[in-house]
Structures are given as structure tokens and as C-alpha cells.
Amino acid sequence: MERDSTPVLKDLVLVGGGHSHVTVLRRFGMRPMPGVRLTLISRETHAPYSGMLPGLIAGHYVFDDAHIDLGPLARFAGARFIHAEVVGLDLQRKRVLCRDRPPIAYDVLAIDSGAAPTMADVPGAAGVVVPVKPIDRFLGHWEALRERTLAGDVRSIGVVGGGAGGVELILAVAHRLRREMRTKGRAAPELRFHLVTDADEVLPTHNPRVRRRFMRVLRRRKIEVLTSCRVTSVASGRLHCAGGQDLVLDEILWVTSAGAPAWPRAAGLDVDERGFIAVEPTLRSVSHAEVFASGDVAAVLAHPRPKSGVFAVRQGKPLDANLRRALRGRPLKPFTPQTRFLSLISTGNRYAVASRGTWAKAGYALWWWKRWIDRRFIARYNRLPTMRAPVGPRLDGALAERDVLDELTASDMRCGGCAAKIGSDVLGRVLDRLEVAETPDVLIGLQAPDDAAVLVPPVGKALVQSVDFFRAFIDDPFVFGKVAASHALADLFAMGATPQTAMAIVTVPFGPEAKVEELLAQVMAGAVEVLRRDGATLVGGHSTEGADLALGFAVQGLVDRGAIVRKGGMRPGDRLILTKALGTGALFAAEMRGKAKGRWIASALASMTQSNRAAAECFTRREATAMTDVSGFGLCGHLVEMARASAVDVELEAAAVPALPGALDVLSRGLVSSLQRQNLRARRAVRGTFAKDEPRYALLFDPQTAGGLLASVPGDDAAACVDELRALGYDAATEIATVRASAGDPEPIIVH
Ligand SMILES: Cc1cc2nc3c(=O)[nH]c(=O)nc-3n(C[C@H](O)[C@H](O)[C@H](O)COP(=O)(O)OP(=O)(O)OC[C@H]3O[C@@H](n4cnc5c(N)ncnc54)[C@H](O)[C@@H]3O)c2cc1C
User: Fold this and answer.
1) Which residues share a beta bridge with 469?
2) Which of 61, 113, 135 to mutate to test the pocket of ligand 1 (most atoms within 8 A of CB)?
3) Phi and psi angles of residue 474, each rounded to the nearest 5 degrees, phi first
4) Which whole number is the average pLDDT over 81-94?
């Protein structure tokens, strides 16, 4: 992977891929800051663009039209993309706390993570009403609601909140559901829609002409409007209002004013009276100089404004400039947001009303204009200019102290050999942070390190050993550590062995001690988590400085002599089962070129970090006749090995081979791994009728990292085995081939 080779001097961490941060990311891609490592932490791989949400609900847009794909954007920015949820901050030690992974260190932190739902203070609402924020979660719920409505299970839907968001949402929901009911030949009038607001009128912050227009539209669409109704409680689908009115609904959507997430206040950041992060006009926290906040989560104390995407977008550019100034230790510049702005509010049916101050206008043309503006906004982030070339080491003197810079600029004279080892202090501190599992078989391990580890294998057990090592292909060191460990352990599982110990070999790019330590801690934390999960103990290793982050393991496992499962051993009549879908090679080749969707990469990583342990145990229980893990040689390469070792032929059903989301898409565009060409040499051992220009044919040769297991089981047990694997969580587990007696051909693999 081509990378900026400049040592890391400062860490800029962005929490949330909100509307201001996408601008910061794009601007970093256009004008990188060598020496600054940019990290984006986002709960979602795709950031929804709120302006297009009503159009998405109404059915005018599809998912990709209305979302910014954060993976390629982060890659364009040269940022590490960490797909995780932030749950807190350690402001003293300058760390971001994430769910299910170690904290991430920052020098400068920016938060643009949006608002939270505000129904917590309404008894009975939690878990019953559906908040529209966060939008990403709402969309999943919306799909389920559509299906239930079309199935006739939902008759009445209410939206609580009479601002622009609520009005647009109820109109979009009504438009879509009535149209789909009509298409299905169902009577649409049986659906009832309600809009509930505590204000005297809908759209209270807009001018009377806008309000009148919307009241007319709502009447015409037969949407009941309940004003001056402050919802005080919710019980079994019944809304109770302060004035005594009650409303019974099958589904309640919640679009009231934005609320603040709890974690910034809990962390100790100064917040305003509603809990939003209090910032200066420079967007810097009033309490913590190295923390910035923008968008809905922030409150600019000197310039209060409504929570709106418009302001978050406008803050992007000044935020970028002030983050750069803060990193260089330069004075910041204040930013004054505009007071009035144009709103284009849609009515669900490709019609919109424009509102600005006392001015209003309506029409179909306005909707198309809004569409043009919104699509142009999204295209700025989804259609990125050609990737920047990697840069060599260039250090900005303002980013660090003189002695640090002197040490780093002498890097080309840094020693190799043992002198390239990472310092013992750094290593010691990292090892202290790891939760290494203990096992009685380890006599001398990391608890009391010596020159080497000493193990006492149980009597009668055979020792199984394997080694793997590779360069990082993703930016998230913690997840890379998990993938590297999962990949190494796969060889042990494929032999039917139980992992026992692992020795790590790790290369970390050089940089200031604190940066090296943090990276090493992240990558090893991921690896140790997987080793623990799969029953192995880290007993030692070797670490060194180098150009790129790389990690590998020498792993040892134990197996009963009689229980070793080998590649040979397949018998005619056996069926071959593959436990994980293929496509990691092509997907990451596409990702490197910025051509893979973030959600494809997320599902590939989820598959890669899934343990092979339960699958191996299942195959062993079911007396698999042969087994291997699918890795670098691709499915066909491994099948050839198995067929030759077993002296049989294998009939492969190519159409049955499971593909990871997006894999066939990228293969059809000719995006393949650099190893594909070598793997295609296995074609010499392949014959059959399957079309060679099909992307699925290329998939058969795609090299896998941390791939699944491929095992042969007696034919009459195959279906039950697949059922068991799926119940164990291997959703892609599939029968893909049949073992036949050898016909004596030099090509033992027949692909249909
Ligand atoms: C139905 C509806 C329609 C709207 N229409 C418009 C409109 O037309 N125009 C307009 O200007 N405004 C509109 N708004 C308001 C708009 O949605 C918000 O003001 C805007 O999205 C705020 O942007 P943001 O950058 O603060 O955060 P967001 O856009 O909310 O982005 C925050 C991001 O941070 C991520 N995140 C959140 N929490 C965490 C965490 N703990 N860890 C990691 N990541 C996290 C989320 O996944 C999300 O991607 C609408 C709102 C609604 C509900």
C-alpha cells in the first residue's frame, strides 16, 4: 500500500463523519499536512445527508444517492478510518474511548457527531417510539415499517415534531406508503397519518406564508394535524398530551428538537444548558484547548443558531483552517455564521417550498433545484479527484520540538539489524497494557520474559506449527491486528488443532516514541483480543522499525495424533463445504484505489475477523475427511492442492460459491488483487464449462486473507453440516462441490 512516509508528529482525530468533517476530510485530501496523522472514527461507514432524507423516504433516491461513503473519502484524505462508536473521552490523557476496542490517542480532537434523540424525558417513549436521529438507525427501522405496512399490519402512523424535519418526514412517509399500497392494489385510504406538535402551528420558525402553504398541503394529503399537544407520556401505542388529548397509533416517529449526547458532558467538557459542547467562535471548546466541536453537537455560545445541517456544512471550512492552526500552535480565527438562510422544504411529491426570512415561494421547479443542489453536494464527497501521490518525508517545523525533528530527519541514517528494534521501554509499556491470556502449558512466557519462551506440551499431543506475516492493508491498526491473528490461527484450525501459543513479529513505522508506542499498542491489542478469543497465549515476539506497519505470528497448536485433518483424504461422494464468502483480495484492491464502498469493506472485515474455531470443531465432530483454510492461493489453488493430495477429481458448482458484498461488482470492473495473475496459473489444473469471462470465475482465483475453511464431509451429512455451521454464525456456509473418482485427467478440477 502506497503511504505517506513522513513520520507522524501529531494526531488529529475526527469523531463522527458529520457535515463539517466531510469538508475537513476533503480539504486534507486536497492539501495534506505531512507529519499529521488524520484519523476518522465513525459509527457508520456511510454518512447520511439529511437534506436528501425525505427524498430517500419518499422513494426519489436510493441509499447511495443520499449517503457519503466515508471509506473512500477517508482514503482520499489520507486518513485512517476507524469504524467504531465513541462512548467517551479521557481528556486528561487525551484519548477517545470507543466501544469494544482500545482508546485512540489524539493531540487535537474534533467532534462532529450530530444530535441525539430527545424523548428520554417522556415516560414510556424509549423503545416504543422511533427517533429519526440517528438517521442511519432510523433507515433500518423505516424499511421494516414499510414491509409491515404493506403486509397490512400498520394502519396509523404519527410523527411527533412540527418543525421542517417532522413536516417533510410525514409527507414523504405518506407519499411513499400510499403509492406502494396503490401499486399493490390495496386501498390506500385505510392508512391514517398524524402530525403532532406542541407549538400553536406547524413550522413555527418559518414565515406565515410558508406555514399556510404547508397547512394546505397537509389538509389535501389528509394528514391530521394536532397542534398545542405536548406529549407527556406514551403507553401501548397511545400518545398522551398535556392538554388531555389522546391519540392511538400503530407507529410513532419522533422528530422533535435535537438533543445532546450524554458522553461529552460526562467526559468533563463544558457544555451549554442543554448539554451541547460549548465552543468559542473559533469552534474550540471553551474548557479544553485541544478539543473542537461543530455541527449539531456543538453550541457556539457567542452565536446561537438553530440545529441545522446548513450550519454544520458552513463550519467545515473554518474548522479545517483552525484545526491546522491548532496543530501548528498558531492563533485561531473566529467564524461568524450567517443569521438567515434559505430553506427548501419538500412536500413528498417532487414539490418544494422555499423559505427565507419573510419570503416564500413554491413549485415543482424548486424541488428539482433542491435536487440539483443536494446531488452536487453529495458528488463533492463521493466523486473524488484522482488520488494524490504519496509524499516523501517532509516535516513542518511548527508541528514539534526541535530535538524531535532532528531525531526524525536523521532517519535515513537509522540503524538496521538489531538496532532497528523498538526500544525496550516502549515495548515494556505496550506489553503492560495487553491482557495476555495465561495457560498452564507456558512455563516461561510474557509474565516473566526471558530470552525465549518455554512450553510444556501435554503428554501424547502432537505440536502443530505455522507462520504468517504481512504488511497492513487497512488503516485501522486494531482491526489489522485482529485480521493478522485470525489469519495466522486459521492454519491451526485447518489441521484440526487447538491453538496454544503465538509469537508475534511486528514492524512499526518509525516516529516519535509516543506515536510508535500508541500504534504498537493498538495493533497488538487487536491481535491479543483474537488470540484470547481463540484460546492462544502470546508468549513472545520481535518488534522492529520499518517503512510500513506489518504483523505476523508464529503459532503453535496441539492435536491428538489420530485427529489430524489433512488436505488429502477426500473420498468420492464427499461434498465440499466453504464456510466464508470469497472476495477479500479484489475488495481491498478496489479499496486501495478508492473504488470500494465503505459498507463492502466493513462486511469483508467482519468476515475476516470471524473466528474459524467453531467451524473447525464442527468439521472435526462430523469427521471431515480433509480440510484446509482458503488463503493466498484462492479457492481453485487450494482445491487443486486438496484434489491432488487425495488423488480425486472435484466438480465445483461455481454459481454456488458465496461472494462477499461488492466482490462481483469490483471483479466485473477488472479490479483484482496483484496476486490474481499468479493464482490464475492454477487454471492449468481446471477444466469445465463455466464461462471464463464471468466475474464469478475470477472470484475462484481471488486470494483471501483470513478466509474461511474448506472441508470435505460425507455426502449424506453435508446438508446437516451446513445447517449446523449456519446456526454457529457462518451465514455464508455453503456446499460448493462434489468429490469424484479420478478420471486420470491432468485437470482434477471441473468447474460448471
Ligand atoms: C428528517 C430531517 C430532515 C432534515 N432536513 C434538513 C435539511 O433539509 N437541511 C438542513 O440543513 N438540515 C436538515 N435537518 C437537520 C440535520 O439533520 C442536522 O442538522 C445535521 O445532520 C447535523 O449535522 P452534523 O454534522 O452535526 O451531524 P450528523 O449529520 O448527524 O452526522 C453525525 C455523524 O456522526 C456519527 N456519530 C454519531 N455519534 C457517534 C459516536 N458516538 N461515535 C462515532 N460516530 C458517531 C454518525 O454516524 C453520523 O454519521 C434535517 C433533520 C431531519 C431529522
Assistant:
1) 552
2) 113
3) -130, 160
4) 97
The answer to whether the beta carbons of residues 299 and 278 sit under 8 Å apart is yes
Q: Is the Cα torsion angle 658, 661, 666, 668 positive or negative in sign?
A: positive
| CA 94 to centroid of chain Cα atoms | 23
Rounded Cα–Cα distance for residues 158 and 170 (Å): 8
- State the DSSP code for 665: H
229 a catalytic residue: no
pLDDT tier for residue 187 given thresholds of 50, 70 and 90? low
pLDDT at 328 over 50: yes
Which atom of ligand 1 is closest in space to residue 312's alpha carbon?
Answer: 25
Do the first three CATH levels of 130-254 and 565-752 match, i.e. the same topology?
no
- Look-up: residue for cell 390495496? 186
Which of 98, 241, 418, 721 is labelled catalytic? 418
pLDDT digit string, tens, across residues 126-158: 888 999 888 878 999 999 999 999 998 999 999
Nearest CA to ligand 1 atom 30: 114
pTM of the model: 0.85
Whether residue 1 has pLDDT greater than 80 = no
Residue nearest to atom 27 of ligand 1 (CA): 114
What is the identity of the amino acid at 517?
E
Class of domain 565-752: alpha beta
Q: What is the pLDDT of residues 496-554, one digit of tens each?
A: 999 999 999 999 998 888 899 999 999 999 999 999 999 999 999 998 888 889 999 99
Q: Which residues line ligand 1 at a C-beta cut-off of 6 Å? A: 15-20, 41-44, 47, 50-51, 53, 85-86, 112-114, 132-134, 136, 165, 168-169, 255, 295-297, 307-310, 312
Q: Please name the residues in contact with 336: beta carbons below 8 A apart, sequence gap of 6 or more.
A: 281, 303
Considering 410-414, 560-564, 613-617, the range whose residues carry the highest mean pLDDT is 613-617
The residues spanned by each domain of the chain are 10-115+260-341, 130-254, 414-564, 565-752
Residue 231 CB contacts under 8 Å (≥ 6 apart), including other chains: 122, 125, 160, 196, 198, 239, 240, 241
pLDDT per position as a tens digit, 329-388: 999 999 999 888 889 999 999 999 999 989 999 999 999 999 999 999 999 999 988 765
Q: Give the pairing type, strands 498-509 and 46-48.
A: unpaired
**What's 130-254's CATH class?**
alpha beta
Strands ordered across the beta sheet of 95-98: 86-90, 95-98, 101-105
Q: Kindly give the number of the ligand 1 atom that is closest to the alpha carbon of 168.
A: 1
405-411 own/partner pairs: CB under 8 Å, 24+ apart: 405/9, 407/512, 408/7, 408/9, 408/510, 408/511, 408/512, 411/7, 411/510
The answer on pLDDT for 593 being more than 60 is: yes
Hey, which CATH number is domain 10-115+260-341, 3.90.550.10, 1.20.1270.20, 3.50.50.60, 3.40.50.1580?
3.50.50.60
From ligand 1's centre to the CA of 226, what distance in Å? 26
CATH number of the domain located at residue range(s) 414-564 in this protein: 3.30.1330.10
For residues 633 and 679, the answer to whether their CB atoms sit within 8 Å is yes
